[in-house]
């Protein structure tokens, strides 16, 4: 019954404030999707365990769902999947050669036509039925269609991303792809079309599927950056990818995208939930054994793992100096950093990098304002009410006196002649050449309240005096 209806009753984590009307007894209450029921085989493989070898459904659906979140104009430039090609084409040996010859003799015309409609193609390819690699094609337009129709039929750049870094495997995939596209699809190739994209090394036998998704996502992010910048193409696409890969995190992200794709396929008459599970069964075997759900899904310990070092980090930002102080204000900013309470609503700020701003030299009469640091960074461990922080000039300027942070005199304006909180100003490019005298932070105890003098207690002679007050002595009239 469940196979015919394509659903089962489950126990989901819920709360008293849940706004969803759960369908406890399905019967005729479940609305069938308008097209077809979602294919959840990929989601099943992700839900089984944290290290299950993934089938193509999970990888292709996750990449497609992520691509749907990009701008529509960029989506139209990206094609996914190779429909109509026998998977044995990507097998090494005679079986792969035979499958390639058959694919050339009987070409998948619809699949080849789809490849001509987009500038980029991102293709997860399963080699030898047990290892995923990612193929990325960048194409250029040529008049190759009916009536010299302009199509994306010229292969300008190709990259094969193999996490095993197996040069023989990558060469096989590249040569088979080229033979199929040239002979079956009449594509043309540039002379220098091969591109090498560095990726971190795979050291297991099951993470190739999540890695294919992770690499495709990073490349899609780079295409988005080019699209936002108005750049049609740049070799920036082929730069080294991230050396960090957390398989549990990636699998969780893929599961969420596959689940959301199922909600979309259900015409959004479905919701993502947390199902209570005790056991799972090995579904890829005829008589699979039951396993404890928690043991198969518990993440590995990544606390001691570090990203693999990229071989070409020349385009990465420089590390921040150890003595860098984010509370200093550049001279051309016009004042101290605005606090959340003093920031005007609706004020737009530029996202230009500080290093790209013009660095003008200050005049001889220019005096930088005293920066106001974060109060908890002034004296760690000092509790409120214990001590006050004051700033004193090195030149002993007694006319202005010290500034007490948090005092009522803070609004009188800056009085110091030099920047504070930095011992090595050469690391800060926006400081003046001659910074002037330094400022020091001094912890000053709060003054204790002085005892008030006691008032004299009046002497009361009688009860009448206590009521009417002391009587005045009568004096004789002169």
Automatic annotation (TrEMBL):
Entry keyword set: Hydrolase, Protease
Bias kind Low complexity: ranges: 337-353, 436-445
Region ranges (Disordered): 294-478
Superkingdom in the source lineage: Eukaryota
GO biological process: proteolysis
Biased composition (Polar residues): 321-336, 354-364
Sequence ranges of Pro residues compositional bias: 446-456
Ubiquitin-like protease family profile domain residues: 23-219
InterPro entries: Papain-like_cys_pep_sf (IPR038765), Peptidase_C48_C (IPR003653)
GO MF annotations in UniProt: cysteine-type peptidase activity; ubiquitin-like protein peptidase activity
Family according to the record: Belongs to the peptidase C48 family.
Record protein name field: Ubiquitin-like protease family profile domain-containing protein
Organism: Xylaria hypoxylon
């Amino acid at each position: 019954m469940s196979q015919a209806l394509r659903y089962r009753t489950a126990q989901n984590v819920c709360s008293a404030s849940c706004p969803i009307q759960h369908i406890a007894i399905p019967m005729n209450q479940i609305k069938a999707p308008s097209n077809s029921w979602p294919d959840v085989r990929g989601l099943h493989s992700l839900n089984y365990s944290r290290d299950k070898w993934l089938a193509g459904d999970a990888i292709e659906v996750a990449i497609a769902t992520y691509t749907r979140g990009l701008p529509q104009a960029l989506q139209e430039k990206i094609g996914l999947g190779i429909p109509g090609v026998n998977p044995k084409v990507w097998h090494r040996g005679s079986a792969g050669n035979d499958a390639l010859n058959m694919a050339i003799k009987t070409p998948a015309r619809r699949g080849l036509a789809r490849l001509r409609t987009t500038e980029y193609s991102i293709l997860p390819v399963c080699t030898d039925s047990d290892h995923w690699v990612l193929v990325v094609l960048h194409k250029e337009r040529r008049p190759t269609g009916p009536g010299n129709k302009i199509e994306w039929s010229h292969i300008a750049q190709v990259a094969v991303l193999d996490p095993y870094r197996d040069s023989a495997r990558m060469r096989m995939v590249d040569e088979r792809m080229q033979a199929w596209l040239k002979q079956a699809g009449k594509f043309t190739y540039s002379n220098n079309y091969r591109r090498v994209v560095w990726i971190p090394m795979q050291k297991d036998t099951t993470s190739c599927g999540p890695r294919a998704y992770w690499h495709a996502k990073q490349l899609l992010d780079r295409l988005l950056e080019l699209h936002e910048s108005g750049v049609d193409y740049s070799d920036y696409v082929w730069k080294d990818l991230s050396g960090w890969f957390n398989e549990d995190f990636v699998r969780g992200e893929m599961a969420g995208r596959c689940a959301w794709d199922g909600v979309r396929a259900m015409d959004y008459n479905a919701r993502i939930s947390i199902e209570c599970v005790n056991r799972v069964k090995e579904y890829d075997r005829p008589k699979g054994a039951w396993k404890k759900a928690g043991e198969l899904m518990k993440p590995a310990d990544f606390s001691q793992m570090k990203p693999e070092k990229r071989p070409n980090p020349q385009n990465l930002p420089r590390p921040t100096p150890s003595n860098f102080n984010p509370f200093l204000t550049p001279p051309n900013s016009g004042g101290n950093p605005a606090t959340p309470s003093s920031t005007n609503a609706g004020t737009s700020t530029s996202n230009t990098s500080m290093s790209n701003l013009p660095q003008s030299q200050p005049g001889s009469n220019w005096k930088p304002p005293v920066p106001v640091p974060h109060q908890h960074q002034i004296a760690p461990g000092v509790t409120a009410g214990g001590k006050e922080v004051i700033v004193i000039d090195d030149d002993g300027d007694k006319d202005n006196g010290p500034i007490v942070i948090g005092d009522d005199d803070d609004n009188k304006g800056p009085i110091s002649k030099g920047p504070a909180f930095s011992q090595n100003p050469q690391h800060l490019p926006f400081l003046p050449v001659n910074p002037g005298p330094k400022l020091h932070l001094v912890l000053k105890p709060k003054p204790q309240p002085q005892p008030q003098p006691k008032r004299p207690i009046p002497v009361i002679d009688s009860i009448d005096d206590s009521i009417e007050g002391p009587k005045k002595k009568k004096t004789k009239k002169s």
